[in-house]
Amino acid sequence: MRVTSNVEDVRVCPDCDQVNWVSDRASSRCQRCGHFLGGHTLSASHTLALIIAALLLLIPATEMTFVSYSVSGQGQQMTLLDSSRKLLAFHEQWLAIVVLLSVVVLPALFLMASAAVLLWRQRARSRLGRWLVRAIKYIRVWMMADVFLIGALISFIKLAGYASIEFGYGVMAFAGFVTLLLIVVERMKRHPLWPVDENAVEYRPMVGQSARAHQVLGCPVCYAANGSARTECWRCHEPLWTIRFRRTSLTVALLLAASVMLIPAQLLPIMETVALGTTEPQTIIGGVLTLWESGDVPIAIIVFVASLVIPIAKILVLAVLTILAQQDTSKRPQSALLLYRITDWIGRWSMIDIFVVAVLVALVRNGALMSVYPGHAAIAFASTVILTMLAAMSFDTRQFWARKPTE
């Protein structure tokens, strides 16, 4: 079974607002900024097989032992779901929801929605089909199973100096699940899931020009060209008022909120370790220093970059880009866009520290001998990461080309 689509289409680039003529016979990118606009027809059967395999792996990944450890004759083990259950037990409901959604629920929903879209022949022409394809695009941004896997490995390395670690079948199944999930995500980006633009001929003369200059709105989901009078996209039914969320005032507000939350995130303890009856609070920087002193220099660098450098750098870079976007950036729009794309991509990896805390809280539960509890900084830090991600989403990169002389 193959996903079929018509040969040619008109799409508006969401990054630079240029109208492009694309084809399903080859991967298509925006001629001005290189944004990926669509791929050639792929085998839906192969993608479905990968989806089924991933969903099957998710069952043992959540039910079987993820990892176990033993110290001084006492042992403990955890499953994947324990990472959110234990946070819930400590009344960290918000963190528990974030971990459960980003690691298990959203990836599962993404896979099931993708399977439904590929199996449903009229997927893009029915109201439910359009809703599912739009959901796939939105869910994809918030999935962090791969980040959790890295965070779990860092947790195991931190524990290796104090206890004997033994991997369970659950972590092996989860690693396989993450691998297949990443492959499916990449394939779903390339499947031509939308019908051809019925107004392609009408918009053909605008190819290579700015959509805004011709009073045309590009859909942020399917990239279809829409007249300025429309309230929702003709093709995917996405409400076009969502474009209003891409504005400078919202970006600035989110960056300010993230900056405020970053202060307690760095000053307060992100977790508390109880060892032989002694409680030791540990901040993010304290955790980095502990890893460094114990000889785990590469891991210390990873945690330092993900937990301190990336959040601060992302806030500063977005702030600078916001200022530049208000000026004439026509001379270097490509450089500004590249910097934005890098900043946007690395932002989610700051969640590593939150997942490290979730794993340690779930695994290290030996009473006064050795236990780990979540600290107050965990909520503040998770909020910082989410706010910076929202700030990046609200940033309007089309401003980089808004003052080009040719437009």
Automatic annotation (TrEMBL):
Major subcellular location class: membrane
Membrane topology designation: Multi-pass membrane protein
Gene Ontology, cellular component aspect: plasma membrane
Residues that span the membrane, as ranges: 48-71, 94-120, 141-161, 167-185, 250-271, 299-324, 345-364, 376-395
Coiled-coil regions, chain positions: none
Compartments in which it is found: Cell inner membrane
Family: Belongs to the PqiA family.
Source organism (scientific name): Idiomarina fontislapidosi
Keywords (A to Z) from UniProt: Cell inner membrane, Cell membrane, Membrane, Transmembrane, Transmembrane helix
Database matches in InterPro entries: PqiA-like, PqiA-like_proteobact, PqiA-PqiB_transport
Pfam name, any one: PqiA
Protein's UniProt name: Paraquat-inducible protein
Taxonomic superkingdom: Bacteria
